[in-house]
Amino acid sequence: MDVIVGAGVVGLSVAWRLARDGRPVTLVDPAPASGASHAAAGMLAPVSEVSYTEAPLLRLGAASLRRWPGFAAELAADAGLPGAEALDLRSDGTLDVAFGADDLAALDELAAYMEKLELPVERLSGRECRRLEPMLAPSVRGGLLAPGDAWVDPRRVTAALLAALDRLGVPLVRARVGELLRDGGGRVTGVRLEPPGGETPSQTPSQTPSPAASAEPGGRASEIRAERVVLAAGAWSAGLAEVPVRPVKGQIMRLRSPQPLLTRCVRGTVHGTPVYLVPRGDGELVVGATQEEMGFDTRVTAGGLYELLRDARELVPGVTELEVADVVAGLRPGTPDNLPVIGPSGTPGLALATGHHRGGVLLAPLTADILRGEEGELAALCAPGRFREIS
Question: Does residue 283 fall inside a structural domain?
Fold first, then answer.
């Protein structure tokens, strides 16, 4: 049996794919789908997010994006939804725009780099940008269109994954993992649960405890044994194993209007500061996101929200007329090289699915396939072995 520690979009995706393959799976998380996945905007944008030093991440992202249509269709079917449109999966492309002269010069340099990589992008004048998105500010100087980029609503995706897992009968233990269990040779053999406040961990309604769970004399399930533990705890992974993952804080705003303000994802640079706006089909507009090295601080701050709204207003002035629906801060799991850590660790019985930083939603399908046993160049790029042995 596999025990998946962490029920964000990555852990849920791994559990769902393994369960579909017929493997016994148990998920453990005190608050499923409430962390970085809940805060994420859901951009599936490997082309528009490319940077000069992250060509391997581009290859991973592009490969995972190609898997998303099939992934979404199968997930919708397993969750009992009418189709992938129920996840608000959209493929209208990303428009990357520049506000000032310096921003435009930087965008031109990036465009040249993208063209060198033979990426499908189109340079646009400010007028052409506004023709595509009439709500853009007159001061927008130019842009780049990445027509192959897409986006999805992560909250709908995680809700669908939970529904699909419920229909497959996968146990979901709502408890915190205190430590990994090991045998005398150091092999990981399961997890020990650490319920908050000493209360009994609970299973989701209609689901039963894993048959591999052991109980203390008082009846409290305290351990779950496993053939393999998959650590997918995001920014908290380093608390359970020696994996080089750190929290990177991101603050985000969700605004709302009766009709969508934009038709595609808009990214921009305003005086050197990046900002993005992601529209939903129901009129929601996600504005994000800061990147702050603040440890495990999940406070939403006035300064962070001010910067987001200030820069978004420069690109799309109409955002100031929208209703504020939600503000949230999440913790992305960052790694030293910005690549995820996916696959068998250096410790028998322990596999990793963490360190996805900004790309957890994008890379979820690929991550699940690697944990199902896919090998090759893509798996090698994010293999834990590129760091020292992880235990």
Answer: yes
